[in-house]
Amino acid sequence: MKRRNFFKLSIPAVAGMSIHSCQVNDSSDHRVEDGKLIEKARQTEIKGRYDIIICGAGPAGVCSAISAARSGASILLVEVNGCLGGVWTAGLLSWILDWEDKEGLLAEITGKLIKDSGTPENYQGRNFPFDVEKMKALLEELCLETGRIDILLHTRLVDAVRREKDITHIITESKSGREAWEGEIFIDCSGDGDLAALAGCEFEMGDPETGLTQPFSMLAMISGVTLNEIEPFVRNNNDMSSKKRLLEQFTEAGLNPSIKTPGIYPIRNDLFMVMFNHVYEKSGIDTRDVTSATIRSRQEINVLVNGLKSIGGPWKNLYLVATAEHIG
Ligand SMILES: Cc1cc2nc3c(=O)[nH]c(=O)nc-3n(C[C@H](O)[C@H](O)[C@H](O)COP(=O)(O)OP(=O)(O)OC[C@H]3O[C@@H](n4cnc5c(N)ncnc54)[C@H](O)[C@@H]3O)c2cc1C
Fold it and tell me: Which of 30, 163, 253, 319 has the fewest CB atoms below 10 angstroms from its CB?
């Protein structure tokens, strides 16, 4: 049957199915009861066994994986995004604060980025701007060269199995379906405490009275302008007055950003990271909130970038290079 004809035939059949039906599908054990879908019992294959399983491959997960692998442990590193680095890369936060006095892996990473032109030559001071693509490649290289880290990208941790107080397995979902992994030690580097929560640990979230957490922010990259042209509006180390001047530019464009301290951070002479927006009163563990915050943020960033461009002058060739995949 042709794909088009298949859809023609199957859509009315699905649309006509009652959601009150007890048997959703005759050929499975799934059923609906009291507004809940009761899933059939599953047998999930155990795909591997590791000394250490690390959930989340942001800065914490990657550095844990490399350190442990260098000590001889076998590692499984599970990451839902398509790259290593978390907020550093998928989040476009290409600007490390207070990097100079840090030792260990951070010093190794910044040293290699400097050597490999992963950062502008003229950077200075407390802040370390870096090239996101160089960072992605470097983190992959550092993990792979240990020969002991199995990386799973595009793979989400969805469950944890416990025997008494110890986690024994995790379950992941990906294009390979549901898979189980056995480990000796598990490290939660999800940034959100997903592993701990799935394992049944108690947690507190947000303000004790309101339950509210920090607002969402989406980072983005802009270009088409140079540091010389927009220097008064670019954040430079401790000087925060650039943010006030930038806010005045938005006002001149008739715009009122959701963040009152918008920032532009120089990455290269013609590439800048920007933090232009906040979305308040949304929950980071509600998928509808995360989705609406993501769409609203992207819309606002586009409006703000177009607004700056509309006032001309140094902004006349401004354009939006990318918005972050991962909102924080
Ligand atoms: C807009 C913004 C600005 C920030 N500014 C600063 C700053 O100036 N200085 C600073 O120190 N920090 C800043 N932070 C905080 C920054 O996020 C952290 O310092 C840093 O990213 C923490 O690293 P991490 O590895 O713990 O978490 P993350 O970078 O969040 O990495 C967690 C990783 O786990 C993955 N993950 C999550 N859940 C799952 C799951 N269920 N299955 C599989 N993978 C999963 C995520 O995709 C991600 O890759 C900022 C954050 C944001 C969002």
Answer: 163
